[in-house]
Write a structure and sequence with these properties.
Blueprint: H1 7-24, H2 26-34, H3 42-49, H4 53-65, E1 69-76, E2 82-88, E3 90-96, E4 103-108, H5 110-113, H6 119-135, H7 138-146, H8 154-161, H9 165-177, E5 181-188, E6 194-200, E7 202-208, E8 215-220
Antiparallel strand pairs: 1-2, 3-4, 5-6, 7-8
Helix pairs in contact: 2-4, 3-4, 7-9, 8-9
Length: 229
């Protein structure tokens, strides 16, 4: 029987896995490591790397979400349009796969991080901060804990909480990205459509504010365990 990870371990594993998946993509790597020494706009990256502009924007969004890049500054064109200039926050990535859970080490880009905390500390703080900000929203909390004891689809959640379906979908997407909810199973509707049923991965949250950086403890959901197919 395989070892079950605790929720904090799952959260860290999920983030590590997402970073590894991003680094496995050749276009994402090309973008990331082409802006170590000098920042570029999306258009400049598209021209330099011969990647479609739409793909560049998507890759930049994914890399920024994972805190691997940042907006270094804004530029104003002759026509008054604002453009983001992106810069890599890392100069090197080491991936070690000696067991099922890979180990990821990110080396900071010292060109821009000389006066900033370690990239790993930044990444962990950013994730914690995003979760704290998310849970401060009453709608997010309502959706999260509505699927604690019983798995539900988006329509069931919307009907139960009297929240618009679009809001529920957006909230579920955010919670899934933060590894706070997961798809418990798929059900087939009468029309033959596959519908996701979501469950909360956490049963309890504790947030401690003793200093500038909040402390976050997530406790696994034991009341509605995920059933393996």
């Amino acid at each position: 029987m395989s070892r079950r990870l605790t929720l904090p371990q799952l959260k860290k594993y999920d983030i590590t896995q997402k970073v590894i998946e991003a680094l496995a993509d050749s276009e994402s790597r090309a973008i990331l490591f082409s802006i170590i020494k000098k920042g570029n706009t999306a258009s400049e990256l598209s021209d330099k790397l011969k990647i479609p502009l739409s793909s560049v924007y998507k890759k930049l969004s994914d890399l920024e979400e994972l805190t691997l890049i940042e907006v270094e500054k804004w530029m104003i064109s002759d026509k008054g349009r604002k453009f983001k200039v992106y810069r890599s926050r890392i100069s090197k990535a080491d991936i070690s796969i000696k067991k099922p859970e890979p180990t990821l080490t990110l080396i900071p880009n010292w060109v821009i991080l000389m006066s900033k905390p370690n990239i790993i500390q930044l990444s962990e703080f950013d994730i914690t901060q995003r979760i704290v900000e998310s849970l401060s929203n009453i709608c997010t909390r309502a959706v999260l804990f509505s699927v604690k004891n019983e798995s539900k689809d988006a329509t069931q959640i919307a009907d139960e909480l009297k929240i618009s379906l679009s809001t529920v979908y957006k909230t579920l997407s955010t919670l899934e990205d933060l590894a706070l909810v997961e798809v418990a199973q798929y059900v087939i509707s009468l029309e033959g459509k596959k519908i996701k049923q979501y469950r909360s991965r956490i049963g309890k949250v504790e947030i401690t504010l003793d200093n500038m950086e909040p402390s976050l403890n997530l406790y696994p959901n034991t009341e509605n365990p995920k059933t393996n197919p």
